[in-house]
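Lab meeting, item 3. Inverse folding demo.
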């Protein structure tokens, strides 16, 4: 029998074990063709000889990249979504016509088939922290550099990194399609995983996929900007060290260090030859450097705040720049003449030139294309309103404060690709199934997270007032956590806490179940999320069982997942109940990781049915396939039940009682009635048998079957001298009425006629 091999990374085990305790699902808005968070990066695939179609690629804080197709006149439409990153996409670049490269705060660099419907071809796990920037060599599309926090810069040979010869089982999209592990060796996969999981093993220990990138060593601080010349012989990097470092990307060796900026270097551009370099910094300055002379030629005080984005004409004579001051400027590098092209409502993150226009990405989820006269920038200056860029930032700031800023040359973008507004505020309601959200446009919505849909769109109303209006006095354990880092709701389930909440089937309006039947919210939610996977899995050919009942296929030989014959995986055949049915249109995405590769993200409708514990956490498969949940705490609650002081009802019980948290007060009433009636000699009718077990059966005597039923006294239950509503659960009474840490005390008395 195979057993799970722990990753051999010295310090990766505990981290991985912790990560495998979690499954996250991301709820997509009704229109998932749009980005729902700020756009961090863009790149244009110009029409070529082979295709007259141009494409725009965008990468967003929502974790996805998108490809936009546009014909000259028609509005752009989203023709593909690239989904696999599990955190913000920070930069993207085209390496040649067919490969899109992206990097993310999830510490990975990914390659994609840019003209596919979103196929991730490789996940490169070498960085140990956020990857912030990429650079490609225009004429040598195999060379890509990636830089990130912690001063890490790697230079990749994309072709070598992609070559199937060395493809190990590195992640879900890498090699599920090419046989055992694509190595053509008999080596078990586990022994190949000697890196990956523990990111801080140095490159030299040859990573799991048999290919190691070149390392540019020597950064003391985080890297935020990279640029490469066309042939891939010069690489420039910048970051919080405030200097520009120049490298030979072929060897990773340093060639020079250039000082001048007084703050983080955020963006770099190299001319095609690699001699001239432009830099933009958080010190609000743009600088032009001559790498041949190893010095700064000019400083341009154009902006009043951090410069985050630059784009240059091919002749390297004019630069377009944007940043935190929400303004896009065009500057003539020779004459220092500068003109305000347009102003935005959000900080500008990245720029890309296309024909005579410029694409602008901001911290907003929409993207705009503005006129820019790229072929003949002089035309913009002829519109008037230009000024001479000084070389002192404080003078520029003063001019700006005095309100002498010129009007922008253009008022309207030529094309707008709209985005969905990101969620900026959320509140989990007490029923622990609904979340109230407010987006950046102040629109308020109510979501049901076990169905993944918007229940109610209230439009622009007061979030606080609606929150109070929706308040319910119910207490249900917190079985999930939520964040909106990706602009949408991400719901996190962690074992064993996520299995702490149950509800009666009847309250969820699930019919055809016994009266006291309880439903575990997390288990049913997981089943709903994995319904497509289960359906496809069922249609896969079954592995043959041997005489002893063992499954022969290696893949399924993990005993703890393969249900025994008697069980026959009946749990997996349970229907998905209506309150847990997720939509197939704009379906949610799952983010999780199994025993191999690393975290991944995929729409619930995209599963093939072949995924297993290499991809999903074991606890999750166990819950869905075998209905096996981990031992749970806090599903029970203990309390005392005493007669009210001064009431002459008999003492039903002494000592402590225990019952499910979700048990309702009317069940306690029934219990008291039953005990009182059963314990009192009525009409000299002797009742034998010991004390009743608490809530035996369903806690109700069958009506009409016992002679004393007609004498049933009317009892009410109190807590803290408050009469309790029969529908309240014990947990709710405890939280809202009792409000003390010690055991709950309930009292009972004969109901007072009102």
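The presenter then showed the designed sequence:
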């Amino acid at each position: 029998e195979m057993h799970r091999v722990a990753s051999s990374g010295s310090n990766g085990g505990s981290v991985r074990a912790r990560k495998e305790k979690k499954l996250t699902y991301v709820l997509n808005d009704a229109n998932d063709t749009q980005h729902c968070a700020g756009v961090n990066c863009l790149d244009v695939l110009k029409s070529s000889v082979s295709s007259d179609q141009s494409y725009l690629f965008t990468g967003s804080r929502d974790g996805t990249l998108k490809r936009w197709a546009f014909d000259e006149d028609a509005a752009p439409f989203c023709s593909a979504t690239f989904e696999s990153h599990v955190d913000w996409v920070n930069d993207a670049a085209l390496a040649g016509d067919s490969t899109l490269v992206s990097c993310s705060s999830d510490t990975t660099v990914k390659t994609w088939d840019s003209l596919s419907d979103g196929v991730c071809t490789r996940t490169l796990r070498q960085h140990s922290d956020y990857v912030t920037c990429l650079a490609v060599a225009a004429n040598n599309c195999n060379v890509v550099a990636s830089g990130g926090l912690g001063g890490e810069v790697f230079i990749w040979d994309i072709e070598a990194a992609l070559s199937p010869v060395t493809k190990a089982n590195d992640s879900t999209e890498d090699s599920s399609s090419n046989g055992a592990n694509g190595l053509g060796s008999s080596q078990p996969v586990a022994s190949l995983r000697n890196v990956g999981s523990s990111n801080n093993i140095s490159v030299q220990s040859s990573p799991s996929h048999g290919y190691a990138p070149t390392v540019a060593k020597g950064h003391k601080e985080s890297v935020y900007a990279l640029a490469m010349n066309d042939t891939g012989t010069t690489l420039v990097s910048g970051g919080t060290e405030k200097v520009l470092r120049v490298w030979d990307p072929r060897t990773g060796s340093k060639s020079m260090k250039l000082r001048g900026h007084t703050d983080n270097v955020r963006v770099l551009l190299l001319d095609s030859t690699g001699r001239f370099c432009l830099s933009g910094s958080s010190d609000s300055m743009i600088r032009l450097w001559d790498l041949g002379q190893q010095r700064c030629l000019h400083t341009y005080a154009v902006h009043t705040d951090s410069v985050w984005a630059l784009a240059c004409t091919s002749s390297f004579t004019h630069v377009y720049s944007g940043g935190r001051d929400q303004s896009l400027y065009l500057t003539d590098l020779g004459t220092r003449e500068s003109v305000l092209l347009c102003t935005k409502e959000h900080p500008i993150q990245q720029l890309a030139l296309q024909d005579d226009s410029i694409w602008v990405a901001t911290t907003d989820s929409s993207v705009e294309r503005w006129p820019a006269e790229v072929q003949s920038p002089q035309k913009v200056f002829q519109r008037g309103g230009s000024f001479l860029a000084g070389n002192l930032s404080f003078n520029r700031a003063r001019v700006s404060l005095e309100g002498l800023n010129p009007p922008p040359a253009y008022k309207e973008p030529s094309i707008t690709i709209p985005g969905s507004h990101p969620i900026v505020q959320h509140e989990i309601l007490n029923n622990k199934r609904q979340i109230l959200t407010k987006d950046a446009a102040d629109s308020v919505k109510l979501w049901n997270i076990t169905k993944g849909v918007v229940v109610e769109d209230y439009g622009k109303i007061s979030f606080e007032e609606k929150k109070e209006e929706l308040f319910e006095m119910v207490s249900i354990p917190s079985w999930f956590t939520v964040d909106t880092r990706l602009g949408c709701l991400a719901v996190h389930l962690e074992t064993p806490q996520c299995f702490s909440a149950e509800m009666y089937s009847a309250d969820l309006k699930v019919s055809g179940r016994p009266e006291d039947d309880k439903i575990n919210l997390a288990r049913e939610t997981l089943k709903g999320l994995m319904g497509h996977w289960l359906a496809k899995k069922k249609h896969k050919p079954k592995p043959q069982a041997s005489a002893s009942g063992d499954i022969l296929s290696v893949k399924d030989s993990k005993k703890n997942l393969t249900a025994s014959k008697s069980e026959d995986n009946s749990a997996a055949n349970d229907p998905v109940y209506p309150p847990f049915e997720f939509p197939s249109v704009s379906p949610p995405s799952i983010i999780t990781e199994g025993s191999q590769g690393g975290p991944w993200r995929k729409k619930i409708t995209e599963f093939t049915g072949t995924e297993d514990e290499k991809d999903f956490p074991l606890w999750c498969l166990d819950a869905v396939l075998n209905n096996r949940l981990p031992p749970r705490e806090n599903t029970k609650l203990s309390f005392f039940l005493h007669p009210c002081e001064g009431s002459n009802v008999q003492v039903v019980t002494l000592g402590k009682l225990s019952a499910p948290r979700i048990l309702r007060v009317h069940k306690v009433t029934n219990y008291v009635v039953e005990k009182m009636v059963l314990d009192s000699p009525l009409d000299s009718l002797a009742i034998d048998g010991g004390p009743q077990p608490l809530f035996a059966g369903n806690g109700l005597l069958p009506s009409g079957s016992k002679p004393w039923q007609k004498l049933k006294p009317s009892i009410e239950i109190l807590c803290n001298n408050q009469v309790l509503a029969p529908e309240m659960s014990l947990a709710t009474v405890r939280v809202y009425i009792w409000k003390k840490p010690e055991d709950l005390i309930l009292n009972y008395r004969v109901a007072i006629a009102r």
